[in-house]
Specification:
8% strand, three-stranded antiparallel β-sheet, 107 residues, 4 helices, mainly alpha
Length: 107
């Protein structure tokens, strides 16, 4: 079975329906946009999601603290300097999650 493929009609589930898993979590089921049947994830997309969340938090927190204490910047400047790290961490985690979505029929 391919990535993001419906187990019933074997069409690719649209990215719009898959992006809901980034916001709501993986405990919910969704519907196929082609056949309308209920589908759910076969397994957790990223094992150890809390560890990857903590790594993402630290990769944002550490540059901000370096800017605050080593460069003596204000909070807003440190937030602006750490913004590229936020964007990179969010895009990498979204890519890894969407790449590893495999659906199973809803029981």
């Amino acid at each position: 079975m391919k990535n993001r493929e419906c187990p019933y009609c074997h069409q690719t589930v649209s990215l719009k329906w898959c992006l809901k898993y980034l916001l709501r979590g993986t405990d919910y089921s969704t519907v196929c946009n082609h056949c309308g049947r209920s589908i759910k994830l076969a397994k957790e997309p990223i094992p150890g999601f809390k560890y990857s969340f903590m790594a993402g938090f630290l990769s944002i927190y550490i540059p901000m603290q370096v800017c605050l204490y080593a460069f003596n910047t204000t909070f807003v400047e440190a937030l602006i300097y750490s913004l590229p790290f936020v964007i990179v961490c969010l895009s990498v985690s979204a890519y890894l999650t969407l790449r590893s979505l495999f659906f199973d029929g809803d029981i």
